[in-house]
Amino acid sequence: PQAEGVYMRNRRRATATLADESNVPCRNCMLQGLGAMEGVCPSRRNDAPNAGMRNRRHVKRFRGDVVGPRQICARLFVLLCLSVGVEATGADCAKTAGPLNKWLCAVSFTLPDMHFTASGFTISLSGTHCSSLQVDQIDSALIPQSSGADSRAGVSVKLNGISFSCSTAHLNVQHATVWPLGPIKADGEASFGVSGTAFNSKVLLTEKDGLAVASDLSDDTSLHIETLDLHLEGNVWVKIASLFEGILHDYLKNKLLPTEIVKVVSGLVHTNGTQALGVLDQWVLSLPYAPLPEPSLPAAALDWRQSDALAMADYILNDVVGCRGPLGLDAIVDSLTDRSGAVSVNASSIVPTIRVEVPGLATVAVDVGMVNISGLDEFSLFKLLVPNASAAERHSLHSTATFASFAASLDVRVNVTPAGEKLHGSSLVEDFRLAVKAKATTLDATLLVGVNRTALASLDALSALQPGCLARTLLPSAVGVRSLELHTSLDGIAVLARGGGLELGVDTLLDNALLLLTDSFAASIPKAINGVFGGPIRGMLDGVLKRAVASLTNSTCVAPPPPAPPPSSP
């Protein structure tokens, strides 16, 4: 039946080729083969009885006719000339919509070497490289923890309309049976195109002591290939592909490719995902960060507990002004923000690039752009620059602020650069916005401010108003952010895609991943947020403060001239 199908398909192709007078060698070959089979040319059968009896060992039933060795050879010639499969053509990446799909179309990836035995054929495919990957749709949903056999929480993922094309560096097919031309030993190359493919799975997290310790694909993960077009090239046995083309096609489509691709994805999720969770868990377990100890300062350093000027400033700021009232901090913030209670800061020059290595696949770089904060006019508590009662921290000042509600958004640019043996291509650049809502948020900060009290006392009232003059009273290496803590209760978190198309599916997938973390591992989230502020953000602000002080110290300290005397009376 396979030979019958190939014959009918190739005969239709032969009709067009026979009309091409310029293709003389192949045309003659076809005429000879078709003539032997269809009566176009006289068929010269071997009528010798003994020869006929011998040839019956090679008799093949083809379209209802009994044929002998010459007919077999003629048909093999036709197959040799016409055995051309469907080319595995890739998508036109220039016409692909959306940056993510354009990037997927342009990158290439490798599949493991594949070996299998089917219907007596031993088939090997090695050096398989794939490209032109396209995905039509991404669907996902949150899977909460349950009391069933598999109680793990996770996210279900469905990819529909997957297509890609692949080529192998080496195809080898062997069969021990002796055919008319000898035992099959086919060597060559294969290429195939896959389309209409659907991938269904669940990414499940294993929990231990309130932390996610491992990630795995669910056992019911499936990959269904709707269409696979196969093309073979190589020696004469590869050209006579009808003998094993169907076997290879069906095995690739229904078993080998789905199994190998699921195995690759499962390995990536388990290996890389579990490694990433391990790094995150070790970081969470190291929290909270202890405040940096106050360094030993010279005896000339000012003891803030004994500063009458600071006590007066604290009284005015914290008690007279306060949070509410006509002169309250809320009113001041409203006047400065046009009653919006919101500010925007470009953090691109403040926050350094965050780089994450995904072993064997890619390097992910994250850059933060605009940071938008609202709710700054809803203070419920505010204390600024309050001295610490402990003698061990007499050179430090503490500030705290509590907001009834708080919202922030970060514009984030993600750059994914393939790096490794499995993924090749250019960088993918995507823009997202991370939106966070919280309530009852308290921010605590402790600043080291070492001031030379003699230098400060030498400033006159006008010079004390000049930042450059004040900066010169600071002791070397005696300014910094010793601690930063954020205690909050999350009210919502989401990722907003800045583009359409496939990015919307990625947006939903990231939202569900964040919901998974906040719902299933809620106890660790406040600790992790506080750790982010106490570690990376504290370090960033410490650097910003030190650079600002250095810049002011190097500036000119010039006291303004005294006011002009009043005009003399006439």
What can you tell me about this protein's structure?
The chain is an alpha+beta fold and 570 residues long. It is built from 13 helices and 19 strands. The strands form 3 sheets. Strands 3, 4, 5, 6, 7, 8, 9, 10, 11 and 17 form a 10-stranded antiparallel β-sheet that branches. Strand 4 (114-118) and strand 5 form a beta hairpin. Helix 1 packs across helix 4 (69-82) and helix 2 (24-38) runs antiparallel to helix 4. The longest helix has 41 residues, at 245-285. Residues 1-89 have low confidence and may be disordered.
Task: Give me some keywords for this one.
13 helices; 570 residues; seven-stranded antiparallel beta sheet; 33% helix; ten-stranded antiparallel beta sheet; alpha+beta
User: What is the makeup of the main sheet?
Assistant: 10 strands, antiparallel
For this structure, the quaternary state is: single chain
Give the number of DSSP strands: 19
- Rg on CA atoms, Å: 38 Å
Name the beta content range. Answer: 35-45%
Distance between the termini: 125 Å
What integer is the average pLDDT?
Answer: 77
Structural class category: alpha+beta
| Percent in helix | 25-40%
Show unreliable segments: 1-89
Tally of contiguous helical segments = 13
Which of globular, elongated, flat, extended, rod-shaped describes the shape?
elongated
